[in-house]
Amino acid sequence: MTNQLFKPETTEDLQDIVNEAREQSRPLLIQGGGTKTGWGHTPMAGDRVETKKFAGIDLYEPAELVLTAKSGTPISDIEELLADHAQHLAFEPPDFRGLYGTVRSSQTLGGIVACNLSGSRRIQAGAARDHLLGFEAVSGRGELFKSGGRVVKNVTGFDLSKLMAGSFGTLAVMTSLSVKVMPAPEKTRTLLILGLDETQAVRAMTTALQSPHEVNAAAYLAATQGRRSSVSYVSGAGQAITALRIQGPGPSVSARLEELYRLLSDAGDIEELHAHNSKILWQEIGNVAPLLPNRTAAIWRMSLPPTSSPAVAARLKTLEGAEIYLDWGGGLVWFAVPDCGDADAKFVRACLEECGGHATLMRSTEEAKACVPVFQPQSTEIAALTMSLKSNFDPAGILNPGRMG
What we know:
Helix content is 31%, strand content 24%. It starts with a strand and ends in a 12-residue tail after the last helix. The strands form four sheets. An eight-stranded antiparallel beta sheet has the order 14-11-13-12-16-17-15-18, sandwiched between helices. A five-stranded antiparallel beta sheet has the order 4-5-9-7-8. Strands 1-3-2 form a three-stranded parallel beta sheet, with helices on one face. With 405 residues, it is α+β, with helices and mostly antiparallel strands. The protein is globular. The protein has three domains: 1-184 and 378-405, Uridine Diphospho-n-acetylenolpyruvylglucosamine Reductase, domain 3 (2-Layer Sandwich), CATH 3.30.465; 187-287, Alpha-Beta Plaits, CATH 3.30.70; 297-371, Alpha-Beta Plaits (2-Layer Sandwich), CATH 3.30.70.2740. β16 (323-327) and β17 (332-338) form a beta hairpin.
């Protein structure tokens, strides 16, 4: 039987597609804009279901800080509407189209939440799952269900929103989502400390983040990554860059900046970026591809205690051609290495054993992904719980089978 492409327009259409696939035990490949198809294992061949026709903003109440949109709504449409009302998505969703070579496609709200994507502000604002108030979805049973609502204080029933965010379409197909929005900052400034190594940078970032000055993003770029920035102050520095972002009301930002200058005066030479250049730099940091542009390299995303990142980075850099930068105050390591067939998976994960971190292979060849776990291997107990959840939502195993391993 030839694989088909389905583009449902209503939940009833989607239910019919899922029910027929369940009855015939045919896999369904679920995707929104298709911008992150290279992330995760390649699902089993089957019919493809695009949710792009579930598009449109159904409700937006700026005063209530809530927006409800269909899952296939382009994230750019949402960000444009919010900007018109001086609001934004505080979890700062990154754009991985450059990473996967899908720049002609549009990221969707459903795709962002399904992958639980968040940018540099995560250390202050939380991840995408923390901003999902409620959703409507069709399970692998073909059943339409809802969870949460359109208000922040909604505690009825189980918090399935936390479960759907990061499930990569393996539990259900979301059709509508309600998210919390926040006022956009009035003023943005970024301090750049020049010339630190990883250990010094993590120490400076920790000092800044633990201060009362509300730093909401902290990252470290080695000189190689800094030279790739389109911000001339960064690329022209010729040194490693430690970046600290402060946002908020104008007078508050000015006062906090002054205090940070004093606090970090001994760390090294300090420069300052204003709003426009700050926006560009933090987009480059979140989007990854501008700073790690080698299309043939394997890309790893590693989460670990910030204090462990200098030692882990030192070990990773022993691999020939390795490139690294840090985000989330050192708690997130982006690592590129020439793809040697297995993306150096055993070595990468061995580097994290002592500190208890985890690593995700974000991009590699299909051959490498076929022989190594893309996502961090789960413990026996967690794996059993995962399988139990999967069997409850999708007992026939038809939704994105194999995507997460």
